[in-house]
Fold this protein.
Amino acid sequence: MAEEGFLSHALLSSVGVEHGFGTRNATEPEGIVRPRQVHGALVAIVKSVVPPEPFEADALATRNPGTGVGVITADCVPVLAVTAGGASVAAIHAGWRGLAEGVVEAGIVALEQLGGRKKEVRAVIGPCIGACCYEVDEPVLMALRRRFGDALDHVLTPSRPGHARLDLGQLVGTALRRSGLGDDQWGRLDGACTRCDPKRFHSYRRDGPRAGRLVHYIVARDFESKLRVSKKRAAQQG
């Protein structure tokens, strides 16, 4: 259920929502609503296909039928989430700053507030930089420690003094669990490292300022449109 050049995941496909995790060969589908990302925890609720003006956010949620929301990354973690039936969807951009401020938890709360029960939420972590290539320093570790406490130790591998390698994707999994999602409610695409896989992914850590961006999107199901089509077919057959 993904456009050409995008990767899909069975957990989202099973709900029947169109979605895609971008590769470097993907072209952004038309009509996807994206914010200006600022590495924070602000969530925007999208109520129309064309927002009245540009806006800042790092997570988007909508239950507007047929509306697609998306985020871009170049090593950070994309998360696509949906409620049962696909009426409400969310796209989340999670770098270390957003994780420290609670962007994943905020995105899941917004999804619930649009009408989904927590036990019905499904979420998938997309391609991001791996612990193999992501070394962070003490200020980053301190910021994350304030939110995650001892749980942070499970996603770190000590490196040189004052530094450690961080598994961002696994830390997002920790945030999803803390949001109340059971292990059967979320998944991870394939664990590929964006920096290690130049054939498929852009990476800021590998390519610097000239790096491209990967786009990731999810579309709220348009039940009303499908109902109209069904009624039209029934009338034609009658």
User: Anything to note?
Assistant: Residues 225-238 have pLDDT under 50 and may be disordered. The longest helix spans residues 223-237.
